[in-house]
Amino acid sequence: MRKILMSLMLVIGAFTNTAFAQLHLAEENPFVYGHHHINTAYRTAQERFWVEGMGGSQTTIGSANLEIIELANVQIFLTEQEPTGGTRGTVVNHIGFETTDISALVGKLKAMGYNMITRGELPERFSVVDDIASVNGASLAFVQAPDDIKVELIENTNNPYPIQLHHVHWAVEDGEAVRAWYAENLGAVSGTRIGQPSGDFPAVNLTFGPTPVSTIPTRGRALDHIGFEVQNLKAFCEELKSKGIALDMDYREIPSLGIAIAFLTDPWGTYIELTEGLGSSN
């Protein structure tokens, strides 16, 4: 029952008008990124970071008055559960956002007391000034969010939103194999970002970076799982099973919400939720 409730908390989040950018993408594309799901023992700390720090909006949805946080192209859900650890050491090392003014955002986060970890995350050959690095012409920074979630910030002055989702960054031993799996099974467009194998979906890049050590699955950690909105989810689940891909939760309709959900874990341990109906249920 707890697992079902947690899943409902995730999928209800797209029922709000402020998520228009994400819902519009879902209408136009068969597979789009939808949400990050965070386990936390300190909900107010997470809310402070994502709302006050990162400029997200907080809203209450559903008959249960569930609270979610929305940023451009992604929703963030919080389950009040002690995580087993942060993002480091897991197959998903960090999540990335673009900002139109990195100096202002870094200054704001520092003033709020958040630890900037840019220097420790980059090789010494890259210059870091005031916690902002210049890497191949791009300005970027890393901040430690509550529950040891690592967040990358990248400046892009041309974006329509002050802060928006940019990428999810894996730490894997064979990035090309992960890229191939996401292309074959989820339809990602194979490519390369910062010299690393990657896969693209509308408004988000999945970067499959190298790691010299083994990593562990995401389930139970601070970033518990990631989510995608899928058209014709039931047929898609059958297609996955025909390929020998096991589902942690098979296709399940939730009539009271007009949606359907399913869960799976990729071969490297990334826990994934699939949803259908978020766009049409607004």
Describe this protein's structure.
- It is built from 7 helices and 18 strands.
- The protein is an alpha+beta fold and 282 residues long.
- It has 2 domains: 2-82 and 217-276, Roll (2,3-Dihydroxybiphenyl 1,2-Dioxygenase, domain 1); 92-210, 2,3-Dihydroxybiphenyl 1,2-Dioxygenase, domain 1, CATH 3.10.180.10.
- Strands 5, 6, 7, 8, 9, 10, 11, 12, 13 and 14 form a 10-stranded mixed beta sheet that branches.
- The two termini are 25 Å apart.
- Mean pLDDT is 88; it is low at 1-20.
Give a brief rundown of this model.
With 282 residues, this protein is α+β, with helices and mostly antiparallel strands. It has seven helices and 18 strands.
